[in-house]
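Pair request: fold both.
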Amino acid sequence: MKILVLPDIHGRHFWKEPCNNIETYDKVVFLGDYLDPYNFENITVRDAIENFKEIIEFTKSNLDKVVLLLGNHDMAYFSKTYKSFSMWHCRHAYDDYEEIAKIFEENKNLFKIAHVEDDVLFTHAGCTSGWLKDTFTEQYKITSLDDLAFSLNNLLNTENGLRYLYMVSRERGGVDFNGSCIWADKNETYWDQVSKLDGEQRVHDIHGVKQVFGHSLQAFYDKDGRIVSGQPQEYFCCKMLDNRSAYVLDTEKFKIEQIKKES
């Protein structure tokens, strides 16, 4: 399969050009974080809201192909219960909260936490074995990726499930030992892949799962002071994408390529 993967949006427009050629892809997966733009990119909250509305309309016109995942920046708008826990971890459009929350509420059925396509698990920040055990008990075993995605998506339906999604590790300024699949830091997903678990030194099921996620900004300043995008970080079965560019994933080869912007 050929999948167009669109990491963290944050009001950016990089998704539009490749989506004009949607017929060339088998699936389009947005990895979440549609709003809360970075100040240094000079995108206003109003720009981000209008961009988000365009993404919604694009999705509605292509329901059979487009998947919208939720990121950590989306959850306080998506769920008032989640919002009640706290919002201090994220940049947040306080003055425009009601408008944004209404957009999410009116289109709630379009969003989910996890998606599986051709044996690849897509989430916003990646799943770690520690968080899976925290969430689904110490004895949790992955029976199938479809079942795992179902369990992850079902977390949206209960207050307890939302609290597990709210888990933020010290790597991201939180108090939990493990971050959730919308919060896990790149260090967490990396070290989880190389660590052995339990007294038997056996590897957890998730270590063999092909995962694609975003969440961690990989842009940097060049020698001329311009902001440029870094390359995706690939380790073991994980591909963590830079969140300023669109990518094409070949699921058969599990190969990812950045789409270069036309000049």
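--- second member of the pair ---
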Amino acid sequence: MEDQTIPIRRPSVAVPDFITHAQSDASKQEAKYPTETIPLPTKGWFYAEGNPLSSGEIELKQMTAREEDILANQDLMRKGKVLDKLLESLIINKAIRQEEILVPDKNAIFIAIRRLAYGDAYPVTITCPQCAEANKVTINLANMKFKEFDFSKYPKGENSFPFRMPDSGKTVTYKLLNQLDEQSIDAELANLKKISKEASGDLTVRLKYVITSVDGNPDKTNIRKFIDTLKAKDSLAFRRHIRENNPDLDRGFEFKCDNCSCERRMDMPIEASFLWPDLAT
């Protein structure tokens, strides 16, 4: 697979030739602001034919003061609608339904939005896992790449993947989650916590939305019963498989502690300063 970084062209940063700036004449006439077209990590492979996201790319408007007003809107923050409104404002093709955007693609979109608005330098504070020292680190978002993924193994236009449980021998199909799924998961977890503050359910609830059939049976009640009795060995193997076989961004970076000898690859944290740089410490 071609090694591909997130395609954002910034005037002061050299980028590969495949990173393109695309602004249609229609966009220029309609909005009078620059736009960027970025490829999606899923390549649009798992969207149904006819879905505008099946093109494998999305055109975004660059952020302006209007979008900063959205980010500063306290009412939207309280309602948890800030990011939804931000996407609504920045996505050029209004035929795209936010709730259908698959999570890997949404991750790439927000990375692109951040780079377009505030540049590639992302300052964060990392606590060393070895000595617990707080380290101020600047992550270069331009270095982020798409994970290796063999699309040829899967039918185009179908969001469905098979996996055979190593212990039980049962075969499940699973899907990439979208925004609507994530909202449903959050709502179910919130209801569980209302019943009991000690209730967790994060893992099992998520699996109940990820898995779409068990041995060919798509019945939701059957799926939930299966997950409630899923052995830990199968659960671990399944989660590892999904993590390693996911057309997403590789958000890892090389961390080196300023205080001790700890060096390791870590996942980039998403702090408030990601889209609110004024909050950076």
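Observation on the second member. Residues 179-195 form the longest helix (17 residues).
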